[in-house]
Design brief:
6-stranded mixed β-sheet, globular, alpha+beta, binds zinc ion, single chain, 5 helices
């Protein structure tokens, strides 16, 4: 699969799952196979992923609007999915935002700052979006979020 086709495929599925009442994940493996799995309001059991070859795969998923833990960004478990399974990319969609973790460390709004500068930016780390941004920076992965 070409990068353009992977992108198109992810976006097509994201349109279908964004308003779903439970979590769905679409997985495109390194060899171009496409899988769909779903969980409940709070997530998808990790055992689904443990059976699969996920290294270098692209995954997208939704955060249902009624999930109280939806912080309009990735959860700690999402972040672990990217790092533990060595994904190429993890995307998330909810009713307001789309967000992505990827392997381009420069694709992070904080990448141009050093730690002292970041401290002086006065970011509100109560907002989990900034926590994930900082986590991504520390792990050397890209992270962005934009309104849908
Ligand atoms: Zn998630």
């Amino acid at each position: 699969m070409t990068p353009a086709l992977i992108q198109k495929t992810l976006e097509r599925y994201e349109k279908q799952i964004v308003t779903a009442p439970v979590e769905h994940a679409i997985i495109i493996t390194r060899t171009g196979e496409i899988y769909h799995c779903n969980g409940d309001l709070h997530g998808i059991p990790k055992r689904y992923f443990e059976k699969m070859q996920l290294e270098s795969s692209h995954i997208t998923h939704n955060h249902p609007p009624l999930a109280l833990e939806n912080e309009h960004t990735f959860s700690d478990d999402d972040f672990k999915l990217l790092t533990d399974f060595k994904l190429a990319r993890l995307r998330g969609v909810d009713e307001k935002f789309i967000y992505e973790l990827n392997r381009n460390a420069q694709d992070n709004a904080l990448a141009k700052y050093n730690l002292t500068e970041i401290y002086s930016l006065g970011l509100d780390f109560e907002d989990y979006h900034y926590t994930i941004m900082l986590k991504a920076l520390i792990e050397g992965v890209g992270y962005w979020r934009r309104e849908r």
